[in-house]
Amino acid sequence: MASEVFDEFQLAGAPDAFQRLWNPHRAAYQKRGQNQVTGEGDCPFCAGPERTDEESLIVRRGETCFVLLNLYPYNPGHLLVCPYRHVPELTDLTDEESREFTALAQDSMRVLRTAANPMGFNLGINQGKVGGAGIAPHLHQHIVPRWQGDANFMPIIAQTKNLSATLGQTRSLVAETWAEGSWQEKG
Length: 187
What we know:
By secondary structure, this protein is of the alpha+beta class. It has one domain (34-182): HIT family, subunit A, CATH 3.30.428.10. Helix content is 36%, strand content 13%. The protein has helices at 2-7, 26-32, 44-47, 53-56, 95-116, 153-158, 167-180, 183-186; strands at 58-61, 65-69, 79-83, 120-124, 141-146. The radius of gyration is 20 Å and the shape is globular.
């Protein structure tokens, strides 16, 4: 009797009409809870600058702010601009931090144009948990390069994003382009 019941249902791993893309690396991030950050001690944006650029995916360090790759990018080259100080909102920045925050966002776009030739960008700051900030207590701006056709059914239907390069490869490309300075000529 039991085998007849199970025969009516597809068991885990049994073939069906769907192909699956597995993202097991996301489990640690989901279990930890991205919105569990409450202070500097558990903030990845505060911890990042204490490690090497390669470990933290940092592509540029400024005086008051830094730029790093998003660990879970929407597109290849998805960058974040963060102040070193643990502040939650744009209005909390000093004048000096505000100037560098903006300048690094502008430079990030110039570097990405040189390194990857995107056709456009999405820029965004989500403030507060209800505003959509994944790490609400530490201000960060998203800089997402965009190309024609980069948005398709995969993120919506399969909750999966196809990326053409590893984070390490992308970090190297962006950091090297930034360091060589050719992007400044396109300013």
